[in-house]
Amino acid sequence: MRRVVFLYLGRTGAGARLAWEIAASAKADASIEARFVLAEGMERAEEIRALGANTLFWPTFTNGLGAIAAVGRAHEIGARLQAELRATQPCAVIEIMPHVWSPFLAPYIQRAGVPRAVIFHDASPHPGDTTALATEWLVRSALKADRIITMSGFVSDQIAKRSPRARERVRQLFHPDFSYAHAKAVAIEGAPLRILFLGRIAAYKGLDLLVDAVEILRGEGVDVRLSVFGSGSINAMKHRLAALDARIVNQWLRDDDIAEALSANDILVAPYREASQSGVVAAALGAELPVIVTPVGGLPEQAGGGVGVVAESPSGPAIARAIRPLARDRAIVAAMAERIRATASARSMRVFLPQVADAACS
Asked: 10 Å Cβ neighbour count for 180?
């Protein structure tokens, strides 16, 4: 049995969801003794407690200013973590997602004599992302980890280019499916094809490109309906979305909101201009929802094997060309949904978790 400590001090978003998915799977995996060090007040904390997972919840901060003002607390947590690791002697500490305090904690993990493994989500900042400076700082810290675990070949290649010396410490896995929603009915012939944009709205996510595509299709008389679920400004596209009669849920999404979005649509489109890999695509596949992605980053890897379509380019016309056959022939959508079901086990957290433990402890 491998004893590992999973560490994540973020409170919201994909990291919190991934922590819960790992905790739920670890409970059923007799080959792993998992302990979790998580942020007090994080999303899904009560659900993780309900699992009976061996978990320590430690106080962090509640906003960006708190991250700076409470740096002293980061060192307190580091000392507590060091003592915890010396007492339990796991084979590795696995950072579920780099956190703004991760560089402060790394020396304490090292002094405990325990290997540090990092699940590496991004090897470079996303264009225009307000967290770019923090991302670069976290990447530099993560590149020093004893083990580097990636979720796509694209990120593995980025790491090798940035730091050839880190190449030997990289273990490439995959992005496991998320379980927000259960399987749904396949798109019905004759009904509008329901298209979903899901997640944070930022320039690099390309919502405007999807709006371009839907306008093209509607101009041709192709019956499609667009839903936009996510936080961020839509002011620049507000009138265009209204003209398309798009359904808009413009807020921070709770798990129930995400489940509703996935259950109420036929396909998900990730029209990104840039990406590493996508938790949104993983959520769609977990709900047996076919995907259309642009040919950027690791998205083609996630959409491969018949579970999705890769557009020719990150542009409105190319995305329209990718959607058009699915809108006109629902048998294509049904075939992709069936392929998602047939290959689900290979993308499951049940497979991912022991591979992460092996990579961290090897």
From this structure: 23
